[in-house]
Specification:
5 helices, 15% strand, 35% helix, alpha+beta, 3-stranded antiparallel sheet, 162 residues, 5 strands, two-stranded parallel ribbon, single chain
């Protein structure tokens, strides 16, 4: 059985990203932190993800509606990623709060580790999880991207509330 793989390079305001589809679901959206060439062969799902990311970065989309399928990860990691989807746009929670929401309050470090393996950057918003003392901690896309995303979302909310 061969699995089709479709890829699209997405040029976000915070740098290059890759969108990967298996033809039925989006299986990865990630920051690209290297200069290797990526061959694009997008399908309709890659194009849909591109459209929704464009809307997000234009400030007109706060929630994504994409068929996502995690092809890697443990049950715990998948539960952590699911918990991330409940964090409202423009808001943050601590890793401890995320662990509590998963009914596993002692799993703070495991939650951090799971978030670091999130296969759906931005769409599954691990950038909205911060340290217990309010500091920005860990983001596989880089701390400057995490800070940019949080400030961007807050600025969109500020504009909407004026």
């Amino acid at each position: 059985m061969t699995t089709n793989s479709f890829k699209s390079v997405y040029h976000a305001p915070i740098g290059k990203m890759i969108i990967v589809s298996d033809g039925e679901s989006i299986i990865e959206i990630d920051h690209v932190n290297h200069d290797e060439p990526i061959t694009s062969n997008p399908d309709k799902l890659c194009q849909l993800a591109t459209k929704q990311l464009d809307e997000y970065f234009a400030g007109t989309r706060a929630k994504f509606d994409l068929p996502l399928k995690a092809i890697k990860g443990t049950d715990f990691q998948r539960a952590a990623w699911q918990a991330l989807t409940t964090i409202p746009y423009g808001e943050t929670i601590s890793y401890g709060e995320q662990a509590k929401r998963m009914n596993n309050p002692k799993a703070v470090r495991a939650v951090g580790g799971a978030n670091g393996k999130n296969p759906f950057s931005i769409v599954v918003p691990c950038h909205r999880v911060i340290g217990a003392n309010g500091t920005l901690t860990g983001y596989t896309g880089g701390m400057s991207r995490k800070e940019w995303l949080l400030e961007f979302e807050r600025s969109i909310l500020d504009k909407a509330n004026k």
